[in-house]
Write a structure and sequence with these properties.
Blueprint (H helix, E strand, L loop, with lengths): L21 H11 L4 H24 L13
Helix pairs in contact: 1-2
Length: about 70
């Protein structure tokens, strides 16, 4: 199964060793639809980083939109 990449640039991987709850890894593999524990960890970490960046953007732009500045569908 090819690895999914959220960016077009090449990524250098570093070997890490850590303890993870086996049930959490199985759930992550199933929910993320990946074939290996390593891929589940990589994808989960990428998504955490993306969400943190998103929430920081949201916090930084809070109250900067004026009512009626965009149309609702």
């Amino acid at each position: 199964m090819p690895m999914r990449s959220s960016s077009a640039r090449a990524t250098a991987y570093t070997r890490k060793s850590f303890f993870v709850d086996e049930r959490a890894i199985r759930r992550a593999r199933r929910l993320l639809a990946v074939g290996s524990d390593a891929e589940a960890v990589r994808l989960a970490v990428e998504r955490v980083v993306e969400m943190e960046e998103f929430w920081r953007l949201m916090a930084g732009t809070r109250a900067s939109l004026k009512p009626g500045s965009f149309e609702t569908p």
